[in-house]
Amino acid sequence: QLHVAESGGGLVEPGGSLTLSCTASGFTDESGAIGWFRQAPGKEREGVGVIARWDGTTYYKHSVKDRFTISRDSDKNTVSLQMNSLKPEDTAVYFCAADGTYYGGSYYASLRVDLFSSWGQGTQVTVSS
Fold this sequence. Notes:
129 residues, seven-stranded mixed β-sheet, single chain, mainly beta, 4% helix
């Protein structure tokens, strides 16, 4: 069982930046991935981006790939989501998720919610003037 915790949400003006942080613990090897997801009111949870643990390959939702960047610390268990040029439509609760099974690039590129078994509590990001 993995333990996941995220932090760093808040209120930011349109065009501003915000960085979220996630720490996932309990991995037994370098397999698996850590992902960022978001859920806006009245909408389904959607994938924002994923980073594969063993090689650091990243996968992004098309609408954020030129604005958001996922990076990780050397321990491969702490991951950041740097969000730039934020828009009101980025407003949502952001979740970090982790899973110890490696599914492969084609699966991670799909940003499927069901690939991840362990989830954080979520952190609110509000983009408003």
